[in-house]
């Protein structure tokens, strides 16, 4: 059977399971819709959290961006994994003990301020919409390849499917669907990695094979070119990032992870604080299975594609069915600049391409003649490596599972922020349970439409778009959550000013650079920080403004001080 037939078989099986779970867990009350009735066991919540957190950016785009940027791309690995540890140890147990539905709920109650709740809800919407746009792009790429349509049509198909699953079961349905999706995505990622590792190194364990296996001279040379031999001496930057930029991006991703509303809400679904701690352990274990494999997959993928394209006749390349299918998606393009009938992949520029489609007029100064979208590298690697069609299909289904699991969780955050934190709280507080759930589902539909638009016309690769969301979370939520738990003096005046300062600065910087074309790199020189890392500066501004304004305004009431003390009180840690 062809890869397409296998793909539809696997999609039929997995989607039937997802649908069955959604129907089984259909909810009619708000606690089930928003926090799964607070009855999810720790290990299941750990798997669901891992699936929620390991989005299309992790599955589809991360190895691709490491393939393109080399060692620079590993800032995503360091930032995202380090950030989860920060969240699990520093914030999650205290937020679960507080016992609310959402992050805006925490902000509104902790600071006894409806304006603070509104600002937090608006920040949650901005972060989640940015994040879910990346997921819609990932879903669109998968459907584009296997339905033989352009990416925009794939995004439309994905919008319908994501919306359906988010609408059926709420958080309860999403949670148990994500448990299944985790196992689908992790198996789909590891199996081709094992095949490639065994083929290229003679060792089936990717992490070990790359280091100690029978590595070919070409594989070793590519590993060195990507900078993986220079971590202990100098930083070999393929993308021209300074160490300041590397630090800023890594930190923004770390603290952004600790401020992500859709990940934090997962800790509200456990029955106890103790279960929240254990679920954090399980999630980190599950996450490490994929993240420790990413560098090996990145190097294997780059080697694989170079072997297929570099110095090969263009007409022979285009005879390959998998190449023809990826060219139809417009994520792969060949330009024989020197007219020799062969394709050259220039060193250091082999994977240079825009985040949307191959550039119509490639840089005439570059000798590179193949343009590969970072987001197709992982999905195309099994085909390029000659793996069985069933494995090729499994990777596609894994990519869908990764994108769908995260998109569903994000849509619930957007829904809860608009429906629960804004509409129900301020416009119809005495609405019936049925009305509350209806408003929540209506907001899911609105969010899908907006996210779909940005999925069709994104400002960058999937991982880059997701990084923007992390930057917005770092600049808006991390200071508020940290200070809200550990500082008795911070008040609502400071929090409101801090959140607004952080998110406006960070969002404005990203918009200017990615949408308006402002060249900050030329104007800032050595002090330039990429859009992926500007959340670090936004976070620092948030901290400064929050603390200064809080000190210049009246202190919180004794009731709020007692509330802060009770959150940190260890004698109730098991409740």
Give the helices and strands as they follow along the chain: HHHHHHHHHHHHHHEHHEEEHHHHHHHHH
The overall strand count is: 4
Low-confidence stretches: 231-236, 348-362
Approximate helicity band? over 70%
What's the quaternary structure here? Answer: single chain
CATH architecture of the domain at 3-301 and 385-457: Up-down Bundle
Measured by DSSP, the beta-strand proportion falls in under 5%
Please compute the radius of gyration using only Cα atoms: 23 Å
Terminal CA distance reads 53 Å
* Number of H/I helices: 25
- Structural class assignment: mainly alpha
Q: What is the residue-averaged pLDDT?
A: 80
- Looking at the structure, the CATH topology of the domain at 3-301 and 385-457 is Sodium/glucose cotransporter
What is the CATH homologous superfamily assignment of the domain at 3-301 and 385-457? Sodium/glucose cotransporter
The main pleated sheet reads as: 2 strands, antiparallel
Largest beta sheet: strand ordering: 1-3
Taken from the alpha-carbon principal axes, the silhouette is: globular
What is the highest CATH level, the class of the domain at 3-301 and 385-457? Answer: Mainly Alpha
